[in-house]
């Protein structure tokens, strides 16, 4: 990779910030503002979303028969770009895409007791400096980021610093000064969560070490065979000379990950296995990412979308918004937000949505995000790639899933296929694999019911994307006489929302937001009216209204 190596200093970072405004393209309206706290992020498995190039489906002789849904299925970067250009994400109100890691994966297979498995999911790294050919090429990723940005969509890659891929017949273990292979984490306390291997046969990077280490001989041999050893070595020499960091394992990996900012202009990282790594590692990573992003924007002003800093969202497994800033590791309380993450994935929303009334959920999240978590965020999800207890595993209430996810304060994460009720119960698939079937494009094209579900997600998603107040505004209860009515306000962006209403004629109290004589638009039914006596009257066949001021 050809890179611009930079001096990571606080002074440089402050002087490189650009002040351009963000605009999100929408077929309906133009968004006035983009903030990560209100973003609508689409999370997909790169291998399972869309096959845009069938010629790269098999590489490195990955032809062993695997367990159900545990091998590569053909999804790739080109397939994602194709859907960006078709407007699929824009129609869904998506303004950021998070894709699983695209770095080169182990070549061999492992046996996890459920049949052979390849690294189709992207979390079994062999080489951080190269894109896996099953996913595509550098040119493919450049095209994806450019296409996304042209459509007002940010791109999040997935960062893994905690571990390498498993050891196989084709993938030997890295040197002992780089990784540990025992003990396996028991999660009894801080040490047994951090200084250990996440699972058996997943070598753990010695992220605590500050000792200088040489490159693993596996990488040296690989890079020499690929004809890029000298270039990679020079870049590493420049990086360590300019940053002053020791040649410790974690800083090699941070260099390789921040190269994706310099070369491709990505907007953020979702960070894997956060609680299994020392918290100061993420503070160091944040500093390097922000400085690299600031330098990228300075050098590429024509590609700048807005004045947001680089975005980091962390996966602290089982973190809940109710915990506020601190995560309990039994003998230690850790604040992963401090000088590190903008946001953490919230594992609680699916339980809240099942156990609490809608307004109680909204009030709780509004309260916490404006007090204990002020200036930070949470990423809410209903379904994910490794959560065996999704909100609606049998896809019986996809409309309610969308309504609660997309209207709850905070950042929303749509897992690929949520919007089309993709099956999560695949015969023969064991564990996480059942959550990772290929995207159900045929059903979207051919099934009326699937199209109707998708239409509901699209309307809510576009409304959310057009109005940052939905995710990051102040929530205010209005009434619960015939369904729930509430407002969301963020500066001049003010909306009124009604859910669980009666179908047909609806009289909505909008006096706190709309003036008498002011025209309103119900985005959901695409009807308009004029406020009279503080009321908006909508006659539609739907039980939901999304009221915005005249556009």
Question: What count of structural domains?
Answer: 2
Structural class: alpha/beta
CATH topology of the largest domain: TIM Barrel
Output the CATH homologous superfamily of the largest domain. Answer: Glycosidases
| Biggest sheet strand line-up | 1-2-7-10-11-14-15-16
What is the highest CATH level, the class of the largest domain?
Answer: Alpha Beta
What's the number of extended β-strand segments?
24
Describe the sheet with the most strands. 8 strands, parallel, barrel
Supply Rg: 24 Å
* Fraction in beta strands: 15-25%
Principal-axis shape equals globular
How much helical structure, as a percent, in the residues?
A: 25-40%
**Parts with pLDDT < 50 across at least 5 consecutive residues:** 1-31
Euclidean distance between termini CA atoms: 46 Å
Please, how many helices?
Answer: 16
């Amino acid at each position: 990779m050809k890179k611009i190596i930079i001096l990571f200093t606080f002074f440089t970072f402050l002087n490189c910030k650009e002040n351009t405004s963000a605009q999100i393209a929408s077929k309906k309206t133009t968004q006035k503002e983009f903030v990560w706290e209100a973003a609508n992020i689409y999370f997909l498995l790169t291998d399972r979303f869309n096959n845009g190039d069938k010629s790269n489906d098999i590489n490195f002789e990955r032809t062993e028969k695997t367990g159900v849904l545990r091998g590569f299925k053909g999804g790739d970067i080109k397939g994602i770009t194709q859907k960006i250009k078709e407007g699929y994400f824009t129609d869904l109100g998506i303004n950021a895409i998070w894709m699983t890691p695209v770095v080169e994966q182990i070549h061999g297979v492992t046996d996890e007791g459920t049949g052979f498995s390849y690294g189709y999911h992207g979390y079994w790294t062999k080489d951080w400096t190269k894109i896996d050919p099953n996913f595509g090429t550098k040119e493919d990723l450049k095209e994806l980021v450019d296409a996304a940005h042209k459509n007002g969509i940010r791109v999040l890659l997935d960062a893994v610093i905690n571990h390498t891929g498993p050891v196989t017949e084709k993938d030997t273990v890295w040197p002992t000064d780089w990784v540990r292979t025992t003990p396996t984490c028991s999660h009894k306390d801080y040490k047994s969560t951090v200084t250990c291997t996440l699972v058996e046969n997943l070598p753990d990077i010695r992220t605590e070490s500050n000792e200088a280490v040489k490159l693993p001989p596996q990488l040296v041999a690989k890079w020499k065979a690929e004809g890029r050893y000298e270039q990679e070595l020079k870049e590493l020499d420049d990086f360590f000379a300019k940053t002053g960091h020791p040649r410790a394992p974690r800083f090699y990996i941070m260099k390789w990950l921040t190269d994706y900012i310099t070369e491709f202009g990505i907007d953020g990282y979702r960070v894997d296995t956060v609680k299994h790594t020392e918290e100061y590692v993420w503070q160091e990573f944040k500093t390097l990412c922000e400085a690299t992003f600031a330098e990228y924007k300075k050098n590429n002003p024509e590609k700048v979308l807005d004045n947001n800093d680089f975005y980091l969202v962390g996966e602290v497994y089982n973190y809940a918004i109710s915990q506020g800033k601190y995560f309990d590791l039994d003998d230690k309380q850790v604040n992963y937000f401090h000088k590190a993450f903008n946001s953490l994935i919230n594992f609680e929303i699916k339980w809240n949505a099942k156990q609490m009334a809608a307004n109680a959920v909204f009030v709780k999240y509004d309260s916490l995000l404006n007090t204990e978590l002020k200036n930070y965020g949470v990423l809410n999800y209903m379904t994910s790639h490794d959560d065996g207890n999704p909100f609606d595993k049998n896809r019986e209430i996809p409309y309610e899933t969308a309504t609660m996810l997309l209207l709850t304060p905070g950042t929303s994460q749509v897992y690929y296929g949520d919007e089309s009720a993709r099956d999560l119960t695949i015969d023969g698939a064991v564990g996480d694999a059942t959550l990772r079937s290929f995207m159900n494009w045929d059903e979207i094209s051919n099934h009326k019911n699937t199209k109707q579900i998708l239409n509901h997600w699209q309307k809510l998603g576009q409304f959310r994307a057009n109005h940052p107040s939905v995710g990051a505004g102040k929530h205010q209860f209005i009434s619960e006489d015939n369904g729930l009515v509430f407002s969301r306000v963020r500066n001049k962006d003010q909306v009124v929302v009604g859910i669980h209403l009666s179908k047909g004629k609806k009289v909505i109290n909008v006096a706190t937001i709309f003036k008498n004589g002011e025209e309103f638009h119900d985005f959901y039914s695409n009807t308009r009216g004029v406020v009279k006596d503080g009321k908006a009257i909508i006659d539609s066949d739907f039980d939901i209204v999304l009221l915005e001021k005249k556009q």
